[in-house]
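From the shared-data thread, chain only:
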Amino acid sequence: MSLLSAHGAMLPLGGSGGYAAAVLADAPWGYWKLNESPAEGVAAADASGNGRNGTYRGVAVTAYAAASGLFAGSSAAIQFKNAGYIACPTLTLASAQKFTLECMVKASSIVTNENMIGGDDAGSNRRWQFRITSAGKLEFLTITPSTVSVVGAATITDGNAHLVHAVFDPSLSAASGICKIYVDGALDTSSTSSNSITAGTAFPIVGARTGAGSNPFTGILDEVAIYTTALSAAQIAAHWAARNAS
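Structure, as tokens:
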């Protein structure tokens, strides 16, 4: 089965239900539904149709476990236990590249700055971090050539499921919010700083900051997607509206 994307291309329907259709309609670069039985070396299937499977990595078999989907539009999820992560294929960022990070998340407590979707190798390819602070707030950092951070107002560590987005759009003015954070389909906060990211390679990681597993996540992640576009407020609201569609 396929659907027509917003860009006119026919895309494979990588999962059943209205939520998957909403994601695929916006042409994600990669889309990991996290429906697997996780273990070291197992592939995290990419449902975007682009063949960008990730790989589960962890220091122990207890690094993660299968979990129920966080909303009715998802059938399964992964519980990360502060040790496991998923290494995704490299992403080449163009000059003035727009992008969006998206996932469903459920967390109760965070030790310190635990990454849901990292893109920071702590070396020469430091791009972004999308994480939860020890205060339970979302934080979106863009790092190279200089670090700019925006911290959300909503408390995420309330034990409830949330749909969260980090949007980067360097075509906007600083006053318009180059970096934005959305929670449950609504704008939570935006930056007022001028910002850019140096063109080059990013190494997306689900459940940690780097491929070495730094700043690992504790909680449940589901329906992770990366877009090489800046999703609009209307697109994000549509994803939220579809969260329980099956």
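Confidence is low (pLDDT under 50) at residues 1-16.
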